[in-house]
Amino acid sequence: MNPSLQDVTNWFNGKSNHTLMIEKEEERDRDRVQLRLERFDVSEHHNQSIDGYGDSRCLLLHGPGVVITAGHEAPLPGDSFVIGLDDLTGTEVREDQVVLLTERGKYSITTGASPDVPGTPQ
């Protein structure tokens, strides 16, 4: 595992049962997800979709959450969020934030969001 990714996994190891706010920026698209982290995995064999989108190496964040879009919230599909790692170009790890940079975009993951994820059981 590359050293910067090891720092990222160490950060997630200490965030179990924490509420995370994930901001994904790709081109002109910005998505926000709030997730209560139950566990995470680094997958080396994630399946690509039929159109070829997907990575063979991924960070999988598991837990209940919501997708937040302009004015409304929807349940996070499958209670998981996937971050492709094949084109990872950089990482930044701080006490309350991890930033992952890929050729496609930027993922900022922070703790300290509201303690409860709306629409999820406590």
In short:
The protein has 1 helix and 10 strands, in the order αββββββββββ. It has 122 residues and is mainly beta.
**β-strand amount:** over 45%
Order of strands side by side in the largest beta sheet? 6-5-2-1-10-9-8
Q: How many strands, which pairing sense, and closed or not: the largest β-sheet?
A: 7 strands, antiparallel
Radius of gyration: 14 Å
Residues in helices, as a percent range: under 10%
Order of helices and strands: HEEEEEEEEEE
| Shape descriptor | globular
How many domains in all?
Answer: 1
* Poorly predicted spans: 117-122
Describe it for me?
Residues 117-122 have low confidence and may be disordered. 9% of the residues lie in helices and 48% in strands. The protein has one domain. The chain is globular. The relative contact order is 0.24. The protein has one helix at 3-13, and strands at residues 19-26, 29-36, 39-43, 58-62, 65-69, 72-75, 80-84, 88-93, 97-102, 105-111. Strand 5 and strand 6 (72-75) form a beta hairpin. It has a 7-stranded antiparallel β-sheet with strand order 6-5-2-1-10-9-8, with helices on one face. Strands 3-4-7 form a 3-stranded antiparallel β-sheet, with helices on one face. The longest helix is centred in the first third of the chain and has 11 residues, at 3-13. The protein is mainly beta and 122 residues long. It holds the Pfam family YmzB. InterPro entries: YmzB-like.
